[in-house]
Specification:
85 residues, mainly alpha, rod-shaped
């Protein structure tokens, strides 16, 4: 059983959809169905990503200014604890 969905569109978007539908000889409802399907596929793909995939563009984007932080992180943490104690 098919269901119906009513959507209000801004005039500019409606104009674009009409133009697209006319250019490719399809119905406006087909354009809407294709757009919704594409959106849902992209959304599902985004949610299936691992946490690393979501944050990998952030890795290395911030600098602490401490050149040996990875090697001597314990030493630097202890120094900060003593400083703030």
């Amino acid at each position: 059983m098919q269901s119906q969905l009513t959507v209000r569109l801004p005039n500019s978007l409606d104009k674009e959809i009409k133009s697209f539908a006319k250019k490719f000889h399809i119905k406006r409802s087909d354009v809407a169905r294709m757009a919704l399907q594409k959106f849902l596929e992209e959304f599902q793909r985004e949610n299936e990503k691992k946490p690393y995939d979501k944050a990998k563009n952030l890795i290395g984007s911030v600098s602490s200014g401490i050149s040996d932080l990875g090697e001597s992180h314990r030493k630097h943490l202890l120094r900060q604890f003593r400083k703030n104690a």
